[in-house]
């Protein structure tokens, strides 16, 4: 080095050059002042929702368990039998006395066909029966009716029942068929059963 030139000055810190692009954290000098952000409570809400769901599920399970234990005796199955499946069950016997047919004149004479018809919309037959109790006591009736075509062959049948009819009284009941029949179908009484209640 020469004596004529002074030594270089010590190195000075230099300011950093400004970046070409601003980062998202840097605020523009022209931007409005930032509003402070509120704390998010998403974690608290999720925790409360999960805890509430667990409490409801636990309560439901406890309710079902307590209900099942309370009714356990009432829904218990009968004890198992050692009998094989092929063994028939014993017939059950009843102490009730069977209902006997009422004494008196022939019950077929108590029933007459008042009207015989066919429903105009669906074509099902019906018969209106007049039943007169000709016995000396009250009686109930079960009457079967046959619906026959022009050749006399049965195409359908029906049944009519009555409650107790006093002696000498008359009632009218209807027997209905269960299927469509042709026009001109006739009604014929079949078996008549008369019972003393």
UniProtKB/TrEMBL annotation:
| Chain segments carrying region Disordered | 1-37, 77-109
Acidic residues bias located where? Answer: 89-99
Please note every region of biased composition (Pro residues): 1-16
What protein name applies here? Uncharacterized protein
Which keywords describe this protein according to UniProt?
Membrane, Transmembrane, Transmembrane helix
- The reply to whether Membrane figures as a keyword in the UniProt entry is yes
Matching InterPro entries = FxLYD_dom (IPR047676)
Residues crossing the lipid bilayer are 44-65
Which superkingdom? Bacteria
